[in-house]
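Blinded run. Sample ID left blank on purpose so nobody reads anything into the name before looking at the predicted structure. Input follows.
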Amino acid sequence: MPQQPTKRPPLLTVTADTLIAVDLGPRRRHRPPGPYRRLFARPGTRAFSLANLIARLPMGMFSVSAIVMIAGTRGSYALAGAVTATGLAATALVAPWTARLVDRYGQARVAVPATLFAALGSLALLLCVRYDAPAWTLFAAYAATATTPNTGGMSRARWAHLLDGDADSLHTANSFEQAADELCFMLGPVLAAFLCGTFFPEAGTLVGVVLLVTGVLAFAAQRSTEPPPRGRTADTAAPAPLRAPGTLPLLAVCLAMGAVFGSTEVVTLAFADATGHRTAAGAVLALQAAGSCAAGLLYGRIGFTGRAEDRYPWCIAAMTALLTLPLLAATLTGSLALLAAALLIAGMATAPTMITNMTLVQRRTPEGRLNEGMTLAVTALLGGIAGGSAVGGWVVEHVTSAAGFGVPVTAAAAALLISLAAAPRQGRGAESMSSGS
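Blinded prediction complete.
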């Protein structure tokens, strides 16, 4: 007779009075995906975002490369600031027209030829500097780069198309895009200063052209996420973005904030040069962008319940207050290290301000004109950067580089006054738009 298997006592004896459940399996904690993970789970979003980052990186390189290249060969920061200001002013005039064509005919059909034409302008500037051409040729060549498409605006337009109706995800996408802007302006100056200082003065511009063309071609190839072109009827069916309620004050604030960015860049470069640390200038500017990038990513994870119109003046007020730190560090200590720390802290208020600004611009832009509306905001920024660069260069030449840090503080204070004066009208405009919808 085969032996019966011995019965082992049960691990747990369950009776009618037992109310204990034992789970001997592995414990797994299923955390819900974060907002950024959910954002990039959508098909095609990673591809177009990576390509756009490559195309956007030169935006933080070109002006620094031009300033270092021109000031190093011609010995004048005033000339360098004037040349970059001319190019940015030309871009401010041409960019809305380019954006309108993008909305009408599509991103791929317009962005590629516009980028190639702008690349020729950058190469012409490089050759004019290299072969000591007359000063007026520098202005003409840099103005030819005005057809550079608003790559950040095209990326935001894709998010708006993909996330139509999802306000929370769109807030996260806008925060990511602003953090991407800051990342490019963090790495761009460092890369430009390294290339110009290590190899030859024109190296930063040359590498920037290669990255711009490569990134735009890769971005344009991602057709699955591209918003459909609106055609010619978009220009007549929807009102012009400039006529939308509350848009002009937002653009005026962008103009003042652009002056903050442009003057800070020129003054910081001059201050680093005056203290004998020209090669460290890019790293110092990168710290400001690093603070803004970190703040932007954190800002995107916060779920706000109040109105963006109410947060807007507070963001600008924080930026104005923190911008006094670089002024104090430069005038009282003259230390580049302390200036770098002050710029890092001051940058933490930049991204929240810009994210809120772009959110308000998107809400006020008529349907079918989104890329044009956001490009108008970027155009105002570029115009402000142009004016800030010129004013900052003049103050550096005629006063001191340390005193030049008063220019961004003044520009930020002007932005605060504009936002406070327009706050009641913006609130009424938002209420009328919401009631009308």
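Unblinding after everyone has recorded impressions. The chain has 18 helices and no strands.
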